[in-house]
Amino acid sequence: MEIGLSGIAGDEQVxxxxxxxxxxxxxxxxxxxxxxxxxxVGELPVLASAGGLGENLFVHGIDxxxxxxxxxxxxxxxxxxxxxxxxxxxTIERHLGRKGIVKAVVESGRCGIFFRVIEPGLAEAGDIxxxxxxxxxxxxxRRAFHLVYGGGKPDRSELQELACLPRVSDRLIRDIRxxxxxx
Length: 183
Fold this sequence. Notes:
Helices cover 28% and strands 19% of the residues. It is of the alpha+beta class.
């Protein structure tokens, strides 16, 4: 597959208003979350194989607690950079035909990870997602997710710190300012 600056060639986003930005070019939903998701919603045909949640990457052994904002990874000949967590929305519930998924994702932090493409390249099924830079080690994706999308009253200084990271997505900064206007 060809990985370009706007994502994987041939991939389409259903909702171009909220998806498909350069900082959200590639989506990884950890493969190991599928067992948890099936426990939440049952055995659905859409969850029988990779791509059930619209992800481009299906990778075992990685999750939002180990991947940090700004981390860089090589996939085939492409280089990807972690920019933000995925914000769950009602589209997931419509796609799965089940209510309560957004709440379960928010509570668990099993949100998924967005990447921008730093260097376009080629990759194929079975290629390893190799870390090449750790990123902001105090900002794992799950921490950013809980802070911005988890509900509750987040610490303003933490929001400002997150928004000032050099590799965070402009979309996440916008969501911070929209959800927490005093930031």
